[in-house]
Amino acid sequence: MVFDTGLTAQFDQIGPLLIGLTWLAGLVIAAAVIFARRSTLP
C-alpha cells in the first residue's frame, strides 16, 4: 500500500487487497475450525 500510494496519486489496488484479505480471513477461519475440532476430541 505504501509503495502504490508513493507512485500514484491515489490507491488503485483495492481489488487485490480485498482478495488477499478475504483469503487470509478464510485461512484463519479454517485454522480455528480445525483447532476447535482437534481440541474437543478425547
From TrEMBL:
Bilayer-spanning residue ranges: 14-36
Claim: Membrane is one of the keywords in the record: yes
Species of the source: Mycolicibacterium gilvum
Protein name per UniProt: Putative ABC transporter membrane protein
Keywords: Membrane, Transmembrane, Transmembrane helix
